[in-house]
Structure formats: C-alpha cells, structure tokens
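ASSEMBLY PREDICTION REQUEST
Request ID: AP-0331
Submitted by: J.K., bench scientist
Number of chains: two
Total residues: 542
Priority: normal
Notes: Please return the full assembly, not individual chains.
Input sequences:
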Amino acid sequence: MKAVITVIGNDTVGIIAGVSNILANANVNILDISQTIMQNIFTMIMLVDVSKSKINFDKLSGLLDEKGRELNVKIQIQHEDIFNSMHRI
Amino acid sequence: MISPFEIIETIKMINEEHLDIRTITMGINLKDCANENVDTACEKIYNKILALAGKLVETGNDIEREYGIPIINKRISVTPVSNLIYKNYTVDDCVLIAKTLDRAAESVGVNFIGGYSALVHKGYTEGDKTLIRSIPQALSQTNKVCSSVSVASTRAGINMDAVKEMGAIIKECANLTADTGGFACAKLVVFSNPVEDNPFMAGAFHGEGEGECVINVGVSGPGVVKAALEKVKGEPFGMVADTIKKTAFKITRMGQLVAQEASKRLNVPFGIVDLSLAPTPAVGDSVAYILEEMGIEKCGAHGTTAALALLNDAVKKGGVMASSYVGGLSGAFIPVSEDAGMIAAAQCGALSLEKLEAMTCVCSVGLDMIVVPGSTTAETLSAIIADEAAIGMVNSKTTAVRIIPAPGKDVGDIVEFGGLLGSGPVMPVSGYSSAEFINRGGRIPAPIQSLKN
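STATUS: Completed
Returned structure:
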C-alpha cells in the first residue's frame, strides 16, 4: 500500500531528517519526495510504500503527528487512493 | 504521481473547508424479525442489528484514519417498522420495539437509527395505525430512534387523514419533550415521495425494494463549494454552474471511495452515494452562504430560489459521473437550524416560511428543521404539511416537513438543540385558520401526468 505524507508549516531545520528517521525505523520506503513553497507556506510531500512497515498505520500516523508537534508543522499520512480518486478519472 | 497542488487542494478541502463524509448508513432488512410475540420480535431485532452492524463504527473509524477524511456519522436504517407490527400489538408494544432499536443503536455505537416509519400515502394498515399512534411516546422515550411517515406520492395523491393526524402527532411530540424545546420533533419527518435508500437522518429507512443489507454513503461539503465560488466572483452563470459541477464531482469521488471501501471491509453490498450538500451549524459549512456568494445579499431575498435551483441541479450533474450509483436525496439541503447562514437570515427577517416553501420546490427535500411558535395549532401544522406534500406530489419530487412547534416559545426566541441540529429561531406562521380545510379528511387525488404546463 502506498501512502502520501504531507508536511505543511514554517520551514525549519530537521524536517526531512525527522520524518525520514521515523520512516527508516519503521521500514517504510520513500518512493518520491518533493518540497515547495506554496502560498508562502512550506510544503513537503512524500510518496511512501508502507506495505513492509514494521508498525501499523495508526501507530505510524501517531509518530508522525508527534514529530509534527515537536517541529511546529502539521504532518499527515493518508492512503494514496484518496488523492487518486479525487483527481484522476 | 499526483501533483503537489492537487494534494494540497484535497488537504485544504478537508482541513479548512469542512469536506467530510457525512454518514455511512447501513440499511438492514428486519422483515424476518416480525413475530406475533413482541418480546420475541425485539430479541430478533436486537440480535440481527448487532450481528450485521457490530463492526460498522470500528470500520468507519479505520477508514477515517487511513484516508484522513472525517466520517462524521455512522448510522443504521431499518425496514419501516410498521411492517413488523401485528394486529394484536398495542401502542406500548410498539414503544418496546423503539426502545429495542435504541438499545441496539447504543450497543453498536451509531448515533441514529432510522426507520420507525410507516408509508401511508394511500391508506393505513392496522400496523401503520398503531405505529403512528406510538410515535410521540417512542421518540420521547428514546435518544437515537428516528421516525418518518409518508403521507403523499405523485402516484397516489395525498392522504389527508394522515396529514391531519401527523399535525396532532407533531404537537404531541413537542409537548412530551417540552423541556428540550420539543426535541422529539427533530427526529420526525413527514414525507411526500420518500426515497428508499436515503442515508440521511431523520428520514432514512430501508425501503421495500432494498436487499438484505446495504451500505449507503452520504457526502457533504457546502464549504468546499462556497470556497470554489469565491474564485469566480462576478463571472456569468455558466461559469458558476461549471465550478459547482467540478467541485461536486471531486466531493462525490471521495464518497464513492469510502462507500466501496466500507462495503468491502464489512462484506455488505454497496448501495448508493447520496451527493447532498448538508450544512452544519459550523461557520463555513453553510448552504445559505453559497447562495449569498452567488450574489444574494441575504438568503431569502428575491433570487434565492433561482440560485438554489442552479446549485441543486449543478450538484447532481457533477456528482452523477463521479459514482457508479447515485441515489438518496442528492442535492442541497436547507435545514434552517443546522445552517449558520439560514439562522442569520431567519433572525434578521430576510428568510420567511413562505420563501422557504418556494425554495423547497427546487431543493432536494423540503421544510427542514423549522421552529414555529408553541401556540401553532395541530391543524396549522397539518396545513403546512399539506402544502409541502402538494409541492412534492405535483413536481414528482421528494418533499418533507420537519417542524418543531416549540412549547412556550414565540417569535423572537431561539431554541437550542445542540450538536449537528443547531439552534432555530422561532419563525412566524399565518394567524389565519386552516382547520376547516384539514378537518375534511379523505384523499386528494393523484395529479394528472400529462398536459404539463
């Protein structure tokens, strides 16, 4: 299963390191990564493969959320299909 | 890969514009639970609901977490309960069934269970009579049970005996729950041309043509439509309709995804997606504000009906292609107490009951969550129902009345219902009597289906 991780907020040191550290520990592979400034807000988007993850989705989501609070940004992980279904016919 | 812009658009819709799945509603057939002995019937009903819907809430929560889309309500609709009422049943027996439904809803964790209903648009069965008589007690003694009664259809006409009775039933519901502003009335809908697969409350029931068990999903998102329209300020109506269609398409795709996923996980067939714009009292989640965004200064001003007609139609057109099966009520709801913009419009006098009645000719349902003075007579309530039923009957559409004659309240007061039901300003009704009209009884014949001018 593929999922999309989004980080939205003010750019700060250690965002990619923080997120990728959690993913590496959970054995989640990063497939693609992009970052941009959209409407003056830092936005990072990662496509990840969670099928070999050592922890369940809920737990992973919780860890990312926690990291987001620590870095003062909003980090979300969502199943890729929600974006596919909305934007692709 | 999906572009960052698209990802952010989706996230913004959810986080800032209140996009949500309003409800996953499981429809359950209870016909096989009918039994001459009411205790046996109750036991069967309880066991069947628990067996089928036991994992409904958990599954909904799982989907919500994985996809990051809020699923606000998980609900159940059942076979119209009047089908289960034997001739020997008393009003108290019916109330016992209502309490069983309430207990089952509590056990599985859903917030409403609909289908304490009777379809009497042509005539009453013995079961219908007893069930309808029990509605005030049933709704005032339970928390989660919702009731609906169909009193008219395009094919059958209007059952004016039932219209008369429902006025009195609504009064009784209000009086039995006077301490909560007549809250029981918020759980009771009087229909013309009801649909059998509606997932929204309080009018949901599992219709005659439905299967054993089915998953129906209702999507929402007035805030998303409003936000999209902000970007086309001043543009002509073609552009307005196009923008609404595109937005409705995206919203409905999400509903389709959730419906399919829920159906797969629960191993229950997928019924329909109901693509309704259902407002909530939250700021930015209002249908009235969409109409105002189109250029109406205050909802209820002249032009409101035309704006709503465009909105209702564009929502359907956009949504139809997004889902393999669209059904339910699909369109725009205009429940006054549940819509911040409608509340404001009613309070400042811009929105009247008469205007709302006109709006129901083009919206997806009818007079919804309207609070009127406690002194309103049963006959006047019946006459309001008759007017609304006539609109539905003649225009071959679903219309409904969910009206609350709040005991002890008068024009100028506001009744707080709390939660999604919001708060309703008391709206004035005509002071002239309709009693003689209502007391005639009998049926208004079905309208002619040709010579349409």
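REVIEWER COMMENTS: The radius of gyration of chain A is 13 Å.
SIGN-OFF: pending second reviewer
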